[in-house]
Amino acid sequence: xxxxxxxxxxxxxxxxxxKYIHLVLLIQIITIIFLALFSNxxxxxxxxxxxxxxxSTVIADLAITTILCWQxxxxxxxxxxxxIPLASSAKYIANVLSSxxxxxxxxxxxxxxNFILLLPYLSASPVPININNxxxxxxxxxxxxxxxxxxxxxxxxxxxxxxxxxxxLIINILPTNTKxxxxxxxxxxxxxATYIFGYTSTGSISDWLKPNVQYIIDILIFGSFxxxxxxKYVESKIK
Length: 239
Known about the structure:
This protein is mostly helical. The chain has helices spanning about 5-40, 45-75, 80, 90-125, 135-175, 180-200, 210-239. It is elongated and about 65 Å long.
């Protein structure tokens, strides 16, 4: 692999991950069609189709986030990727950002899919829909939701890498046959992170700023640890 620039590495990482995104989207579309056909039960088909589309979107997003986390750590732990003549910190940043771009990519496609599924339902509505009549508050709240989701997935990717890198460090420090300790560390950190993220995510729309500031702080803290760990410990262990 003769990729020396950040852009080339970023592109290659994204292309590797987009295959899984297309697979998840394909499964989602097949699921929507199947459930809409066989879960009608006398209900209006358009309503069932839009409902299944929204529900499957949430499940697909959880699935792709998990897959991208796995891909991130697979790349971080890959000797082949580490041999690329580019700084480890730059490869780590490219890895995380390519996953974030993957989330944005699937989000846009899912948005289009759900819009298409909702078109028959909206056209049959007795109340005419005029996009020019949308309230500023609705658009504003939707924009804030997108920002929150962007920061949240960034926190998830960075924190998962932090747990993985820290487990490498523990294995290096402690005696051999300590894989169960690594597993214990992962479980403990995951429980703590779930509590913290759940606490900072609670609140109404008016509390939007609080969790997002916390997300930014988490990104800076855990991101800094990740860059330090991958340069000092992880790279040497992989090699």
